Amino acid sequence: MDSTPPSSSSSPFDLVSSALGRYIPRGQAAAPGPAGSPADPVGAAPEQDLPAAGRQEQILGAVNLDRELRVTHRNLEAPVFAGLDAPTGSPFVALLPQGDVPTVTRRLRQVLETGEAHVARVQRLRRADGSELVVSMSILPAAAPQEGLTVSLIAMARRLHLYAAETAIGTSLDIGETAQSLAESLLAWGDVAAIDLDFAVWTGEGVTERAQDRIRLRRAALVPDRAWPEGYVTLGDDLPGEASRLLAQAIRRADTPQSIVVPDRAAIERVLGSPRLVRALVPSDRSVGVACVPLVLEGDPPVVLGVAEVWRRADRPFADSELLDLEELVARTSHHVDLARQHQREHTQVLALQRRLLPRSGGGTIQTASVYQPTTPDSAGVGGDWVNSFPLPDGRTALVVGDVVGHGLGAAATMGQLSMEARALLSAGLAPDEVLEHLDETVTLLDDAETGLAAGYSALGSTCCIAVYDPVSHRVALSSAGHLPPILVSPDGRAGPLALHPHPGLGAEFALREPFGVHTFVAPPGSLLALYTDGLVEDPAVPIDEGIGRLADAVASVHPWDPLQQAARRVVSEVMPARQRDDVTLLLARMIGYRKEDTATWRLPARDDAAVRARALVSALLRQWRTRDGTRDSVLLLVSELVTNAVRHAGGPITVRLIRDGPGLLCEVGDTGNGRPRLGRAGLLDDGGRGLHVVHRLTTRWGVRWTETGKVVWAEVVR
Fold it and tell me: Is the Cα torsion angle 221, 224, 225, 230 positive or negative in sign?
């Protein structure tokens, strides 16, 4: 081939072809060996067999195409391109993997139309035997007056392939995707590649040195994707215990992780010693060899994360240089596998916490159903959304939805802390706005220099919405801290968002803080309340009001007899944006309340005879309810003590309420006082302070909740 510099009128094909003369040694033909041998990622002939002058340089090729993208000329004489079948008149796209055909075709036609070159595209080409060659492909327009294209191909040298593989493997924190990327990169050295990981790595557990007889390997990746023989270990399967132990022992010779090569099928059968293990591990019936390379986490001592297996035909044995390349690639990417393991561990922990916070049964006065759908693992799996519903000790039900800023373990830890704090404060009788005040202070404290920002996480701007449902009055008290407005569907089918006063959220700057308001409304039996996070309705393609409107329409379509959990899933599937960008959370609550015949309320003036009147009213009702004599006596004494305390210490009108709830009776006495009753230790000669001791002994539990006009002391007695 003539290497004389061409004239200025030469086509790009001539320019590339003439340059090839400087890279292909004179007198050397393309290696006729096994076409497209995948044993060598840069050539069919082993590198050590090539003349020294041409080992590193034989990487250039060129193909000329007409306007129909058919091959008109080709120069693929370098040994690296052996096995690329591109006869004159054949479509160029026949060289491409099927999945790349649309994209490359679009690029080729774009260069034809615009005349602008497209350079340095990393591309895989298919050899005749099905293996692939990685090249850097540039598409150049033909020089006038010629038409068509010139495609120059630069076979990526081993170093470039190692770099590209490492870069691709490190792009995901999902352990399955990481293992798959590693296996796909290893396929350049063989016909089949598999990654078998220690089960503790697969599940994200801590990796330690363990006894060899406890080793357990799981297949995390397997390429290529095709039908495998019966009994072969495929993706997600555990390797047989004997195979796991054999692999572990083989790669840990002299207590040091080492690569091993088993050259042919006969040797493999001798090592495995069992037809069952041969069926499980050997991917073909023909004679094959395998290279096993340990994935090692450096340390003292080093820890083996798993094993990479590369299989190929026995007539192409692994060269020493190839084994070194395999070891280098696996060594470079083992830390990515460990990072994915750590992410898997965090993902599992956060998801367990998230599931732990999901609502349980709402009791007989309210039905609840929730849906929580995290974002993809690449965004750290789960975030700070939480949803909770729980009965309060006084018979009411609390509904809480929150959205903590960010994703990952920091957001989950803050989410868990705020969720548990909200539950404790609500159970202690605080109103929703008072609970939000405490959460606001907590977020501010968590964000100080020592505990929040120093840990690389800030929860400022988190949102929360709290609703408390009273099943007797059917009233809901709701407060919001920067959260989107809940949707209320009345029994007659009318639906819409509640009109809430906007609030900047939790942890706002002091100058921006505002009092948390309380929105009170009536939710008759049959009403449906939907609380949610912004991931359900926020879509960059539509305004937020439109997303909320779609949610209102979907919730309004829920039939009163629909199973609520199924309805919640249906609403999410209808409303959720096509491309999920954030965690999606929905809580549906269907109000039921108590039957009228199970409750009674009396309003009494704060006079000395209030206790007597209360006992008479309660006694008549208990007879009507056919309450046992012992229970009736306890309730009458309880009412007498609570009303007497209210008259003595509070004043104002007194409200007495009795609720029959399953096996229990709930007695409530409300007044206008703001003092908190406390159970103290009374002396033998003390006249006061004994009423609460009586209450404490007669009841299964008792407590106080605060109202806008005072407080309510409640107590529960077993019927």
Answer: negative
* pLDDT classification of 17: cutoffs 50, 70, 90: low
Sign (positive/negative) of CA torsion 345, 348, 354, 360? Answer: negative
Three-class SS state of 631: helix
Predicted local confidence at residue 377, as pLDDT: 45
Q: Which residues pair with 155 in a beta bridge?
A: 135
> How many Å apart are CA 193 and CA 185, to the nearest integer?
9
3-state SS, one letter per residue, for 2-43: CCCCCCCCCCHHHHHHHHHCCCCCCCCCCCCCCCCCCCCCCC
What angle do helix axes 320-356 and 158-169 make, rounded to 10 degrees?
10
Q: Is residue 302 over pLDDT 80?
A: no
- Confidence at residue 154, expressed as pLDDT on a 0 to 100 scale: 82
What residue type is 706 in one-letter code?
W
- Please give the C-alpha separations between residue 630 and each of 633, 669, 715, in angstroms, as whole numbers: 5, 21, 16
H or E stretch at 127: none
Query: How far apart are the C-alpha atoms of 558 and 491, rounded to whole Å?
Result: 11
Could you tell me the pLDDT band of residue 615, with boundaries at 50, 70 and 90?
very high
Q: Please report the pLDDT score of residue 89 as a whole number.
A: 92
First vs last C-alpha separation in the chain: 105
**Residue 214 in this model has a pLDDT that exceeds 50:** yes
Confirm if 448 and 460 have CB atoms less than 8 A apart.
no
**Which residues, including other chains, have CB under 8 Å from residue 35's CB and lie 6 or more apart?**
44, 82, 83, 127, 128, 129
Cα gap 432→439, rounded to integer Å: 11
Mean pLDDT of 131-138: 80
Q: Which of the four pLDDT bands, split at 50, 70 and 90, describes residue 30?
A: very low
172 has pLDDT over 90: no
For the chain, percent of residues with pLDDT exceeding 70: 77
Strand-pairing partners, residue 310, are: 193, 291
Contact 124, 134 (CB under 8 A): yes
Tokens encoding 203 = 């599940």
At residue 352, φ and ψ (nearest 5 deg) are -65, -40
Report, as an integer, the average pLDDT of 454-483: 86
Q: List C-alpha distances in Å: 600 to 580, 614, 620, 627, 665.
A: 49, 12, 11, 15, 12
Among candidates 332, 341, 284, 45, which has minimal Cα distance to 186? 332
**Strands 192-198 and 701-706, sheet pairing:** unpaired
3-state DSSP call for residue 660? strand
Cβ neighbours of 116 (radius 10 Å) = 11
- Tell me the backbone φ, ψ of residue 271, rounded to 5 degrees: -70, -45
d(CA 330, CA 183): 10
Q: Are 222 and 234 in contact (CB under 8 A)?
A: yes
- pLDDT at site 359: 59
What is residue 379's predicted lDDT score, i.e. its pLDDT? 39
